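Hi! If you just cloned this repository, the fastest way to understand the data is to look at a raw example. We've pasted two of them here, unedited. The first protein comes first, obviously.
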Amino acid sequence: MGSKSRIVHVDPRIALAFAQMVGWLMRDVTLTRDEARGLMANLLVTDSQPNAATRFSEWLRRNADKIGVAYASELARHFR
């Protein structure tokens, strides 16, 4: 994808604390404790066949110029 981002493994409590600080700065909720638990429990993994005809990596490659350009607040989108 051309990203220079690095994946760093940290204790989940540290990751959640950092996400809460970012959320406070952005006035948004970036990650909840329940979401973190779900991610750690591999709840985003499935053994079923894909529903879409397009691979996510291909879609991402085609839309790379649009990803991360603007911030979309979850709270603003749903509750404000």
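Ok, and the second one:
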Amino acid sequence: MGWAPFALQQYDYYYRRNTKPGHPNEDFKISRLPSEIFEDHIYLTFMDDFVGGQTLQYCGDKNCMWSSDYPHPNMTWPNSRAFLARQIGNLDPEKQKRVLAQNCIDLYGLDVKA
């Protein structure tokens, strides 16, 4: 997920640059910034992505979810808690909750009792 903030920044830049009045692409078929469309439709997951975890401080936590990918070979188990502590331990508890559970609950409309 660490790649996303830079890519979205670039897509927005090119969209703004290439859809100005008089530009050959001014009638481009989308009317919103790519980052806005991304925010409405795309979720990112991560397992071992220190850079991605750090970007949550700046880019928000709405579209990101942690994944253990158990039982695949690239999983973080049995050290998942240590990975999480390094990657998102600096975030406030509410952001951690969103990334670790609430975003998944919201995305899939899960009925989870408190």
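That's it. A detail worth noticing about the second one: The mean pLDDT is 88.
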